[in-house]
């Protein structure tokens, strides 16, 4: 049984004894974004069966086959990790149609969770994952029928550029790319007709699409109800069929929808590209141009690329759908409605753009389009308030959160609810309200903008991503950060600022958890896969680790992908974030000797002993053979880091110098009972080999368990610091220290 997680008055995770703990691990894993049968990744050729067979897919064995669970979970434990964010999609649960749940997949998920529990030492929280609404709109998440529900014809999204799918770049015969799929093109689907409309309807259909009534409900209510029902069906089944997962503190909670987005809200003029939209890549239609394209009309649109100081217009291009429409004709929609037993309002005309239906624009004679209401989404119809990002989060998003939360608390009053607002935005202002309880966690995401978009680690300059989004700079050039040391400090400041925002808006007691954070591994045009030089990835991951450990932040790296390959990355839109790859495995995997357990600190009883030391260079083949837990892990030295497992008192600061092999930890040990004054530190041998490690501290005695790689530091009260250094191999042990550890 895992120790139960509590929350301190200042919003830190603690164990049952009140010691601060940190939850760190990975997202396991992005294979859940696409079905296992048929195995339709985003680089599978786009055949008609992609749509025709959407009801009959299966996600069983994603993220992995049951017989592989122990191996991969052990990999994570060997990294010192103790937590997993477990994504699943709405489509995986309800692809068969509204209210038709895939209980085979639900049972499979429960079996995976049980196996994780059997391995032990890992906490799990569940994530209803979506990206740009659905894999049929270039991402992941919602089932195909939700698009039919809105009246869309996804088969024509390509011609109308209502969405751009990587699948359309793949040759059906060779299954290779017909032309290169641009880096990070997929997020632009957030600003194309299909995803933008669906997210607008999901969060604001009642006010802004009142004619869209289906089975007596506005489409907003209908979609939200179906989504929440599907998620809670899975969660209820886990409670019913595997109560031991909760009793044993393995499953600790549920997150809200992954990376919710605003749709057309915050788009103040539909005839213009919003000035604050930093993501402009490839064809970049305005909302009004997207409406026209959706009805099959030809439009000339701007083309952009990304530069260091923001988007840069590179030209224009003509898009001509040749009359093909992204909307179902009456005949097509009637067939769909009959299939799903849908009855629509008489006011909901088929074959017409929803926003033309609501008189946002119109066609004059000779099909000349006119934008009648360019500011249609700019103001709340009820109050007249401007719908900026803060309004969206504190109203439209919060209304969904309240509904989601009520359903969750009806079935689980004890587990954590992870509240996730739109990415890199401030959370809703609900401090001291009934929407916050002592089991609320602020879930935020962070990606470094430059590293993400350019897939490189620039040691010379970067930008303050969060500062740009907070409008801190009149000109993006002022956001430049020069030099790697300053870039690392800037990343640390950004994460600390996001943590403080959580406290300011949600309350001091709410823990902050970075449920997604990571760096791409296919940097520098995949150079590392050819020459084995992972220096860019090591530096980037080390910078993230440095930023996280400065505030003792809990996190789940994006990601650990069981199907990762050098060619296709995480098998989703050319993303390649996995810390493990099957293409980086050497030799045979075997059971490992290292195991981090947090259940019982009294197990840490042995002292330092001299063992074969690791290397500070790249991992050698000999190391992989002698320590199989390294097998397949990329940028290992930056990922495998020392950290405080349990802090007796309050965490103050920590730094790990990867190059100099030095770890510093400062705490305020305010525990009066001297018998409880001990802090546990995970101390990986690869950085601090026994016989070559010195310790300098303000007070204390030490015990070390070389199997679990845990240092137990018994110390006095007050401000306490400990510094650990790797010393040269030839250094002699301190006098009177037969175990080979220098204590100074």
From TrEMBL:
Family: Belongs to the glycosyl hydrolase 5 (cellulase A) family.
Glycoside hydrolase family domain ranges (all copies): 68-261
CDD domains the UniProt entry points to: AmyAc_family (cd00551)
GO MF entries: steryl-beta-glucosidase activity
PANTHER family, per the entry: ERGOSTERYL-BETA-GLUCOSIDASE, PTHR31308
Name this polypeptide is given: KLTH0F13706p
Keywords linked to the UniProt accession: Glycosidase, Hydrolase
Single GO BP term: ergosteryl 3-beta-D-glucoside catabolic process
Gene3D superfamilies assigned: Glycosidases, Golgi alpha-mannosidase II
Entry-linked PROSITE patterns: GLYCOSYL_HYDROL_F5
Signal peptide positions (record): none
Glycoside hydrolase family 5 C-terminal domain sequence ranges: 641-723
């Amino acid at each position: 049984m895992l120790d139960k997680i509590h929350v301190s008055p200042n919003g830190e995770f603690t164990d049952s004894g009140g010691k601060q703990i940190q939850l760190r691990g990975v997202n396991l894993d992005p294979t859940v974004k696409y079905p296992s049968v048929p195995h339709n990744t985003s680089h599978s050729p786009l055949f008609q069966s992609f749509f025709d067979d959407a009801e009959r897919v299966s996600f069983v064995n994603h993220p992995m086959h049951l017989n592989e669970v122990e191996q991969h979970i052990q990999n994570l434990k060997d990294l010192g990790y103790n937590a997993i964010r477990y994504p699943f999609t709405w489509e995986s649960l309800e692809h068969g149609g509204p209210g038709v749940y895939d209980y085979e997949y639900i049972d499979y998920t429960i079996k995976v969770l049980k196996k994780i529990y059997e391995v032990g030492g890992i906490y799990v929280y569940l994530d209803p994952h979506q990206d740009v609404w659905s894999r049929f709109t270039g991402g992941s998440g919602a089932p195909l029928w939700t698009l039919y529900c809105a009246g869309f014809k996804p088969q024509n999204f390509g011609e109308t550029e209502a969405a751009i799918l990587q699948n359309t770049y793949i040759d059906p015969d060779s299954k290779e790319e017909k032309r290169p799929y641009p880096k990070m093109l997929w997020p632009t689907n957030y600003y194309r007709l299909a995803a933008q409309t669906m997210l607008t309807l999901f969060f604001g259909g009642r006010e802004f699409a009142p004619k869209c009534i289906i089975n007596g409900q506005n489409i907003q209510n209908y979609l939200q109800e179906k989504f929440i029902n599907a998620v809670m069906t899975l969660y209820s089944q886990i409670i019913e069929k595997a109560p031991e997962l909760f009793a044993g503190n393995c499953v600790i909670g549920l997150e809200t929808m992954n990376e919710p987005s605003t749709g057309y809200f915050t788009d103040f003029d539909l005839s213009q590209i919003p000035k604050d939209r930093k993501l402009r890549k490839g064809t970049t239609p305005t909302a009004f141009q997207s409406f026209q394209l959706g009805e099959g009309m030809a439009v000339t649109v701007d083309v952009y690329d990304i530069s260091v100081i923001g988007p840069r217009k590179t030209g224009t291009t003509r898009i001509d759908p040749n009359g093909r429409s992204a909307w179902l004709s009456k005949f097509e929609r009637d067939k769909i409605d009959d299939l799903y037993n849908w009855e629509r309002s008489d006011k909901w005309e088929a074959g017409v753009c929803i926003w033309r239906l609501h008189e946002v624009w119109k066609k004059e004679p000779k099909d000349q389009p006119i934008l009648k209401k360019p500011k249609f989404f700019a103001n709340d119809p009820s109050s007249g308030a401007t719908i900026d990002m803060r309004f969206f989060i504190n109203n439209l998003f919060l209304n969904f959160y309240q509904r989601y939360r009520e359903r969750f608390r009806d079935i689980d009053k004890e587990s954590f609810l992870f509240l996730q607002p739109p990415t890199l935005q401030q959370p809703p202002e609900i401090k001291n309200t009934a929407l916050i309880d002592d089991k609320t966690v602020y879930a935020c995401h962070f990606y470094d903008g430059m590293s993400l978009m350019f897939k490189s680690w620039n040691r010379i300059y970067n930008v303050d991503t969060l500062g740009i989004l907070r409008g801190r700079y009149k000109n993006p050039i002022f956001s430049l950060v020069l030099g790697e040391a300053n870039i690392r400090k800037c990343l640390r400041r950004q994460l600390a600022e996001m943590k403080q925002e959580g406290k300011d808006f949600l309350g001091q007691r709410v823990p902050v958890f970075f449920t997604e954070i990571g760096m791409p591994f296919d940097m520098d045009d995949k150079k590392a896969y050819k020459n084995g030089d992972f220096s860019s990835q090591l530096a980037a991951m080390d910078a993230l680790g440095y930023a996280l450990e400065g505030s003792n932040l809990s996190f789940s790296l994006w990601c650990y992908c069981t199907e990762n390959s050098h060619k296709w990355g995480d098998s989703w839109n050319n993303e390649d974030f996995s810390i493990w790859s099957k293409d980086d495995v050497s030799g045979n995997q075997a059971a490992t000797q290292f195991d981090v357990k947090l259940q019982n600190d009294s197990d840490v009883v042995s002292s330092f002993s001299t063992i074969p030391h690791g290397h500070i260079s790249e991992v050698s083949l000999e190391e992989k053979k002698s320590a199989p837990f390294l097998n397949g892990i990329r940028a290992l030295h930056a990922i495998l880091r020392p950290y405080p497992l349990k802090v007796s008192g309050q965490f103050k600061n920590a730094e790990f110098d990867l190059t100099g092999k030095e770890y510093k930890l400062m705490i305020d040990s305010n525990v009066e009972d001297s018998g409880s004054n001990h802090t546990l530190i995970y101390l990986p041998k690869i950085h601090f080999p026994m016989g070559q490690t010195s310790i300098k501290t303000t007070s204390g005695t030490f015990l070390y368990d070389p199997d679990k790689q845990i240092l137990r530091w018994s110390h006095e009260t007050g401000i306490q610091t400990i510094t650990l250094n790797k010393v040269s191999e030839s250094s002699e042990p301190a006098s009177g220290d037969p175990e080979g550890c220098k204590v100074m």
